[in-house]
């Protein structure tokens, strides 16, 4: 029952669509039922106060372990790694690799997409490669990526749909590996993996990476995927130091999906190599 439908403000189809999107994000607060009637910002907001308290505790803890920790960081900003990942709050780069602030230069967007028209991503990459001279660029996707799921199911969410078109294109390009014979879960998992692989291919084609390789700068690209369900990182096998090497690695990796199509190899979230 819906008063909006009764009043003819929305169609039954639109209502059905809204419900399917709401189901995808059922873990988020519902503005209709969970919010107070009148909202006023509370300067003593306990949730925010906690952040400052936790920050103070953390800073004190770091200094207790290493008294020069912060003073050294001021003069040391030479990370070896550039991480491109998803904005998802469950995938923080330094935490999942058990590293510290200062160790990883990071760029994140929804669904870890590397697009030739994303000036922000290209700028971060150029700064990481040309200025910071990182040794490794790591694109890290993750299973249970809502962005990938929305793209695969072609749900309308809003402005972000335009951004997620990139992933729909990846899905179309690799449709062969997403075949209907796989479970829904496997299809989403696989598209999460293929999205990383495709982003590595895009990254390798940028002038930034091409120029770095041409001048002999030591720089390796990696494609990883992280399991939110088990906290483990998987290497997707597309590590490369040149376009030629990437072509070979891509061939091997996609062959793995071919084998999997024949039912010979496990993939998706259950796959845990090394
Ligand atoms: Zn994600």
Which key phrases capture this entry?
274 residues; alpha/beta; five-stranded mixed β-sheet; 48% helix; binds zinc ion
Topology of helices and strands:
Layout (H helix, E strand, L loop, with lengths): L2 H4 L5 H13 L21 H20 L3 H7 L5 E6 L6 H4 L7 E6 L9 H13 L4 E7 L3 H8 L6 H14 L10 H22 L1 H8 L5 E7 L6 E3 L7 H19 L13
Parallel strand pairs: 1-2, 1-3, 3-4
Antiparallel strand pairs: 4-5
Helix pairs in contact: 7-8
What does this entry show, briefly?
It contains eleven helices and five strands; from the N terminus they run ααααβαβαβααααββα. It has 274 residues and is of the alpha/beta class.
Overview of the structural elements:
This protein is of the alpha/beta class. The chain has a single domain (79-270), classed as Carbonic anhydrase (Beta-carbonic Anhydrase, Chain A), CATH 3.40.1050. The protein has 11 helices and 5 strands; from the N terminus they run ααααβαβαβααααββα. It has helices at 3-6, 12-24, 46-65, 69-75, 93-96, 119-131, 146-153, 160-173, 184-205, 207-214, 243-261, and strands at residues 81-86, 104-109, 136-142, 220-226, 233-235. Strands 2-1-3-4-5 form a 5-stranded mixed beta sheet. β4 (220-226) and β5 (233-235) form a beta hairpin. α7 crosses α8 (160-173). The longest helix is centred in the last third of the chain and has 22 residues, at 184-205. It is globular. It starts with a helix and ends in a 13-residue tail after the last helix. The mean pLDDT is 88. The protein binds zinc ion.
């Amino acid at each position: 029952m819906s008063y909006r439908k009764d009043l003819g403000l929305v169609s039954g189809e639109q209502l059905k669509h809204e419900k399917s999107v709401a189901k995808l994000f059922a873990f988020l607060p519902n503005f209709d039922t969970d919010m107070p009637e009148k909202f006023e910002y509370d300067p003593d907001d306990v949730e925010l106060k906690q952040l400052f308290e936790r920050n103070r505790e953390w800073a004190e803890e770091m200094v207790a372990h290493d008294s020069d920790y912060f003073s050294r960081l001021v003069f040391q900003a030479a990370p070896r790694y550039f991480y491109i990942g998803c904005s998802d709050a469950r995938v923080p780069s330094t935490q999942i690799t058990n590293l510290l602030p200062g160790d990883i230069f990071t760029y994140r967007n929804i669904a870890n997409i590397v697009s030739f028209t994303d000036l922000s991503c290209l700028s971060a990459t150029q700064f990481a490669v040309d200025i910071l001279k990182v040794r490794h660029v790591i694109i890290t996707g993750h299973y249970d990526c809502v962005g990938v799921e929305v793209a695969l199911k072609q749900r309308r969410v809003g402005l972000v749909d335009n951004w997620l078109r990139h992933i729909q294109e990846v899905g179309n390009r690799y449709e062969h590996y997403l075949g209907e014979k796989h479970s829904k879960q496997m299809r989403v998992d696989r598209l999460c993996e293929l999205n990383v692989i495709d982003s590595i291919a895009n990254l390798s084609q940028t002038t930034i990476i091409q120029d770095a390789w041409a001048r002999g700068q030591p720089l390796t690209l990696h494609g990883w995927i992280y399991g939110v369900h088990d906290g483990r990182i998987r290497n997707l096998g597309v590590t490369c130091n040149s376009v030629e090497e990437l072509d070979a690695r891509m061939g091997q990796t996609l062959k793995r999906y071919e084998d999997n199509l024949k039912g010979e190899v496990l993939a998706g979230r259950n796959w845990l190599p090394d």
